[in-house]
C-alpha cells in the first residue's frame, strides 16, 4: 500500500510512517523527501555549508527489541552483527533491520546520490547517518541519504524495499531482472587455495587430471592470481606490465586453455584480474597510452577507524591508476586479448579499493560508476557477461551493478582459521538478505577434502550460489562432491539466494545459543540447512546447540501439510505448516532438510544422495491419475506417498520399487542422466 502524505510525516523530530511513530529525536538536518513511495519514505541529509563529509543524528528507533545489520570492517567485505542496542551499531553499516515490540520490522537503508554515499552507525547513544564523497573537492549540502520502511513481514519488506530503492536511484537493476551467468549451473574449480600465486600451466593440468581420476569433473574453472605479467616497482608496489601471461604459461594462455577444454571438459575458462589491472594498478611505463598516473590511497575515516594503516598496508601507498576517461579502452584491449586466447570470462578482484582513489577524480561513487560501466561493457562485448565481482562489498558497487549479477558476499574461505567456518556461512546468508536483492551472492570456493568440507558443502547446497572448490591435486572428498554435483557436471543448485530463517534473522548464531538456519527454494519445495556455527579452540568447551525445524521456516512455501526429509539422518517426518520438530547439532556440524508440500497424498523428495534432494526435480505433478516426476539425474529417488503405487516406471520401463507407509516410495535409478518417473495408482473405490 502506498504511504500517504498524512500517514508519513516528520514533525518536531518524530518520523511517522503509516501512522506509527518510528524514530524520535530526528535532527533538523534530516528532511522528508517529497516523493511518495510504497511503504516507506526517503530522507535527505543536509548541512549548513558545502562539505565532502558530514554526520547527521538520525535519532532513536522506537521500541526496538533486536536489530540485525551488515557492516564493512575493511574496504572489501562486510560481516553481520546483531544486538539489542542501536547505540552500539558499528561504523560503516550498510543496511539495518530492526524488530519492534509490536512485531513490526523497520528497514533502514543508506543510499547513494550523485557523487555521495551514506552509511549509518551508532553515535552518542542514538543512530546517525554519515554522508561522504571521498573527495575533499567534491562538495554538497543536500543528499538523498536514507530509505526507511516498516512492515509486518521481514522478507516481504526487504523485497519491496529493494524494488523501491532501485526505482528511485535508477543506477542499477535488481537481481531478478538480470541474467545469471550460465556457468553458475555447473561445478567449478578455482586454482587459488590449491596453488595460490605459484600456479602454472603444469599445475593446472595436474589439478584437472586429479578430478578426472575421481570421476567428478568441473565444467568451469577459474585461473586465479599468479598468471599475470607484473613487476614490483621501486616504491614496493606490484603492477601489471602487459596483457600476456607470465613465463609460467609459455606462449601465453592459449595452450593452457586448449588443454583444459580439449582434454578435461572445461566449458567455461575464467581468469582472475584486479579491477585496476593488478593489486597496485598498471605500470604506465611498460603500458603507455592509457594515461596511467600515480594516485595515493586515501580511504575514508570509517574504514580507517578499523585499521588506521589501510592506506599503506597490503599493496602499498600508490596505485598506477588508469583514469576514468581511459578505463573502457583499457578493459576492451585487455579482454580482447584474453578472448583471443580462448578465455570465456573474468573474475575481477579488489574492486572496493576504488573508493580510496577518488580524491580529485570527482569522488568514490563517480570513479566506481565509470569503472563499473566500462567493466560491464567490456565483459558484455567480449565474454557474453561472464563476470564474477569480488572484493566489492562497498554499497555503491551493488547499487551501480546495472548488468552484472554475481558478487562475492564474504571474505575468503580460510582453510587454516577454524573459527572462520561458521562465520563464513552466517555472513553470506545475512549479506544476501538485502544485497542479494541486487546481485546473486557468490559464497566463494571451499575445499572438499578439508576437515570442514562437508560443512561448507551443506552451506553451498542451500546458498543458491555457484558451487566451485579449490581442491589441491589428490586432496578431494568425492563422496562430498557427489552430494552437490550431478553426473553431467551440473549442480543441484537452489533457486533463490540462501537467507537466514526468521527465528535466527535477528540473532548471532556464531555467539548465541541458536542454530544458524538458512533457507532457499526449489521447484515446488523448500530446503533448509541447519548449522551449529560455534567454534571453541578448546575441544572441552565444545557444546551442542538445540533448535527446531518447521515448514514455516521456508518463507513463501505454500501448503498446509508437509514432508520433511533429513539428509544425514535419512529420516522422513510429517508436519503441519506451523509445527516445529526439535533438532540438536554438535559443534560445526550440519543437517540439510528438504521440505515438500503434500499434494493429493504425494510429496516428491528427489534424489536422496544429494544434500539438496529437491534440487534434482525439474518438474512434478499429477497427470491423468499418475504422478509424474522429471529428474535431472539417476540415483535413489524418494517420494512420500500415502498410498502404494500399482506400478512405477522409469523412462517408460516398469521398475522395482519399495513402499512403506512411513517413508513412501524408493526407486533405484541406475542409469545417469535425466529420468522421468511415473507413479501409477489404482483408482480409489
Architecture blueprint of SSEs:
Blueprint: E1 9-11, E2 14-17, E3 20-24, E4 30-32, E5 40-51, E6 53-61, E7 64-72, E8 78-83, E9 93-100, E10 105-110, E11 112-113, E12 116-123, E13 126-132, E14 140-151, H1 154-169, E15 188-190, H2 192-195, H3 201-214, E16 220-223, E17 228-232, E18 238-245, H4 254-264, E19 268-274, E20 293-296, H5 301-306, E21 318-321, H6 324-340, E22 345-349, H7 364-383, E23 387-389, H8 395-400, E24 406-408, H9 420-434, E25 440-442, H10 453-461, E26 468-469, H11 478-481, E27 499-500, E28 516-521, E29 526-531, E30 545-549, E31 561-566, E32 571-576, E33 581-585, E34 590-597, E35 602-607, E36 617-623, E37 626-631, E38 635-641, E39 647-650, E40 653-655, E41 658-660, E42 664-669, E43 675-680
Parallel strand pairs: 15-16, 15-26, 16-19, 19-22, 22-23, 24-25
Antiparallel strand pairs: 1-2, 2-3, 3-6, 4-5, 5-14, 6-13, 7-8, 7-9, 9-10, 10-14, 11-12, 12-13, 17-18, 20-21, 27-28, 28-29, 29-34, 30-33, 31-32, 31-34, 35-38, 36-37, 37-43, 38-42, 39-40, 39-43, 41-42
Helix content class = 10-25%
Distance between the first and last residues' Cα: 49 Å
Number of DSSP E strands: 43
Strand order of the largest sheet: 1-2-3-6-13-12-11
Strand content: 25-35%
Radius of gyration: 26 Å
Assembly of the depicted chains: single chain
Structural class: alpha+beta
Low-confidence regions: 1-6
Overall average residue pLDDT: 96
Amino acid at each position: 500500500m502506498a504511504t500517504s502524505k498524512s500517514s508519513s510525516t516528520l514533525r518536531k523530530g518524530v518520523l511517522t510512517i503509516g501512522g506509527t511513530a518510528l524514530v524520535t529525536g530526528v535532527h533538523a538536518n534530516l528532511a522528508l523527501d517529497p516523493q511518495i513511495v510504497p511503504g516507506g519514505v526517503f530522507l535527505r541529509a543536509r548541512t549548513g555549508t558545502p562539505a565532502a563529509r558530514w554526520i547527521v543524528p538520525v535519532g532513536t528507533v522506537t521500541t526496538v527489541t533486536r536489530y540485525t545489520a551488515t557492516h564493512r570492517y575493511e574496504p572489501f567485505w562486510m560481516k553481520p552483527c546483531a544486538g539489542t542496542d542501536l547505540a552500539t551499531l558499528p561504523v560503516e553499516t550498510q543496511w539495518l533491520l530492526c524488530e519492534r515490540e509490536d512485531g513490526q520490522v523497520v528497514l533502514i537503508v543508506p543510499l547513494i546520490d550523485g557523487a555521495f554515499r551514506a552509511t549509518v552507525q551508532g553515535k552518542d547513544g542514538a543512530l546517525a547517518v554519515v554522508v561522504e564523497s571521498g573527495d575533499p573537492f567534491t562538495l554538497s549540502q543536500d543528499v538523498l541519504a536514507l530509505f526507511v520502511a516498516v512492515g509486518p513481514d521481514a522478507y516481504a519488506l526487504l523485497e519491496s524495499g529493494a524494488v523501491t530503492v532501485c526505482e528511485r536511484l535508477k543506477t542499477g537493476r535488481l537481481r531478478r531482472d538480470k541474467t545469471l551467468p550460465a556457468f553458475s549451473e555447473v561445478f567449478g574449480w578455482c586454482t587459488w587455495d590449491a596453488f595460490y600465486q605459484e600456479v602454472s600451466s603444469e599445475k593446472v593440468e595436474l589439478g584437472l587430471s586429479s578430478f578426472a581420476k575421481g570421476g567428478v569433473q568441473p565444467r568451469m574453472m577459474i585461473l586465479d592470481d599468479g598468471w599475470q605479467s607484473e613487476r614490483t616497482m621501486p616504491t614496493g608496489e606490484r603492477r601489471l606490465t602487459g596483457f600476456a601471461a607470465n613465463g609460467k604459461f609459455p606462449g601465453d594462455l592459449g595452450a593452457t586453455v586448449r588443454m583444459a577444454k580439449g582434454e578435461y571438459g572445461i566449458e567455461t575458462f575464467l581468469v582472475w584480474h584486479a579491477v585496476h589491472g593488478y593489486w597496485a594498478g598498471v605500470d604506465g611505463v611498460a603500458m603507455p597510452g592509457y594515461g596511467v598516473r600515480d594516485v595515493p590511497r586515501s580511504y575514508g575515516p570509517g574504514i580507517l577507524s578499523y585499521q588506521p594503516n589501510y592506506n599503506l598496508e597490503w599493496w602499498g601507498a600508490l596505485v598506477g591508476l588508469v583514469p576514468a576517461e581511459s578505463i573502457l579502452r583499457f578493459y576492451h584491449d585487455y579482454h580482447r586479448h584474453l578472448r583471443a586466447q580462448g578465455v570465456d570470462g573474468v573474475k575481477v578482484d579488489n574492486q572496493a579499493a576504488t573508493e580510496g582513489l577518488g580524491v580529485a577524480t570527482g569522488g568514490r561513487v563517480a570513479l566506481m560508476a565509470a569503472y563499473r560501466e566500462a567493466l560491464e561493457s567490456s565483459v558484455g562485448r567480449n565474454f557474453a557477461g561472464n563476470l564474477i565481482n569480488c572484493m566489492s562489498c562497498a554499497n555503491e558497487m551493488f547499487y551501480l551493478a546495472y548488468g552484472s549479477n554475481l558478487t562475492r558476499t564474504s571474505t575468503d574461505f580460510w582453510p587454516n582459521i577454524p573459527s572462520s567456518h561458521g562465520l563464513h556461512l552466517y555472513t553470506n546468508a545475512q549479506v544476501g538478505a538485502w544485497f542479494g536483492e541486487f546481485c546473486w551472492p557468490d559464497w566463494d570456493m571451499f575445499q572438499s577434502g578439508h576437515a570442514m568440507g562437508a560443512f561448507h558443502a551443506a552451506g553451498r547446497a542451500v546458498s543458491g550460489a555457484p558451487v566451485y572448490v579449490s581442491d589441491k591435486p589428490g586432496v578431494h572428498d568425492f563422496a562430498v562432491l557427489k552430494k552437490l554435483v550431478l553426473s553431467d557436471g551440473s549442480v543441484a543448485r537452489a533457486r533463490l539466494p540462501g537467507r537466514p530463517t526468521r527465528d535466527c534473522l535477528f540473532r548471532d548464531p556464531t555467539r548465541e545459543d541458536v542454530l544458524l538456519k538458512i533457507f532457499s527454494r526449489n521447484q515446488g519445495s523448500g530446503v533448509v540447512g541447519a548449522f551449529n556455527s560455534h567454534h571453541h579452540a578448546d575441544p572441552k568447551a565444545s557444546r551442542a546447540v538445540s533448535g527446531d525445524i518447521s515448514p514455516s521456516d521456508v518463507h513463501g512455501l505454500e501448503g498446509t501439510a508437509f514432508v520433511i526429509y533429513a539428509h544425514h539422518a535419512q529420516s522422513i517426518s510429517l508436519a503441519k505448516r506451523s509445527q516445529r520438530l526439535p533438532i540438536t547439532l554438535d559443534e560445526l556440524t550440519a543437517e540439510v532438510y528438504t521440505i515438500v508440500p503434500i499434494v493429493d497424498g504425494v510429496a516428491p523428495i528427489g534424489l536422496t544422495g544429494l544434500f539438496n534432494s529437491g534440487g534434482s526435480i525439474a518438474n512434478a505433478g499429477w497427470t491423468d491419475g499418475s504422478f509424474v516426476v522429471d529428474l535431472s539425474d539417476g540415483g535413489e529417488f524418494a517420494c512420500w506417498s500415502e498410498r502404494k503405487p500399482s506400478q512405477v516406471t522409469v523412462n517408460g520401463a516398469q521398475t522395482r520399487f519399495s513402499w512403506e507407509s512411513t517413508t513412501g516410495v524408493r526407486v533405484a535409478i541406475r542409469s545417469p542422466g535425466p529420468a522421468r518417473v511415473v507413479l501409477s495408482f489404482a483408482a480409489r473405490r
